[in-house]
Design brief:
single chain, four-stranded antiparallel β-sheet, mainly beta, five-stranded antiparallel β-sheet
Length: 223
């Protein structure tokens, strides 16, 4: 761990990604320090604790725009009134990178009768995977801590089920009177870092107003 008692000390990291987590250490001699992203002040973090706490999450931002960013941690002359000193501790950084998986990507495993159709308003390459098969599934195994599924709503869409690592998460009703594209059908964050599988399963159910039971897969965004 990098440690300093210099009240003007800084630590900076330039990275490419869409998010970052900064881990520090809390203890009886830790001060307060400031955190900046791209030279813009974000927050102040009080590292004081009566007992030592390792791997303490001092800052998190997972909604940055794609590209290069710089995080700067700056020690200050301030501290909790109970703290015995103004030490600043830098343990490690975790950089997040969103990855887009389009419906045509061969890492998606389709089961049942599917077609890939060009649709106005579809994301990424302008196509969308579509099925009318009420037993069809689409599965994606990914490494990350979160995922978003983008789909399509419309007058002929079905109700389908979403599973994560084999556990039912939600049913999603894709019916609306007027088509809506690039709609977030499911999202989750804060998963344990590692391999996960999301599965979409069409059903025989649909909104009473829906004219059919189509299921659409546009794209996935992995965090």
């Amino acid at each position: 761990m990098a440690v300093t008692s210099d009240r003007q000390a800084t630590a900076s990291l330039t990275f490419n990604g869409t998010g970052i987590r900064f881990y520090s250490h809390k203890g009886p001699g830790t001060g307060r320090f400031e955190i900046y992203i791209d030279d813009v002040y974000q927050t102040s973090w009080d590292g004081y604790a009566t007992d030592e706490e390792y791997v303490a999450l001092a800052y998190e931002n997972t909604s940055l725009s794609q590209g290069e960013h710089t995080i700067t941690v700056r020690n200050t002359s301030n501290k909790n009134e109970l703290s015995a000193a103004t030490y600043m501790n830098v343990d490690w950084f975790e950089v997040h990178q969103r990855r887009v998986i389009d419906s045509t990507d061969d890492v998606i495993v389709y089961a049942g009768d599917w077609t890939h159709e060009i649709m106005s308003g579809a994301g990424q390459d302008g196509t969308m995977a579509v099925t009318f098969d009420r037993q069809a599934t689409a599965s994606l195994t990914f490494n990350g801590t979160g995922i978003r599924l983008y789909s399509r709503k419309g007058p002929g869409a079905s109700i389908y089920e979403i599973y994560l690592d084999g556990v039912f998460q939600a049913s999603w009703d894709g019916y609306v009177a007027n088509p809506e594209n690039q709609v977030v059908a499911y999202q989750i964050s804060g998963l344990p870092s590692g391999q996960h599988t999301i599965t979409l399963r069409n059903t025989r159910n649909k909104n009473l107003l829906s004219a059919a039971s189509y299921m659409h897969v546009d794209w996935f965004q992995i965090e």
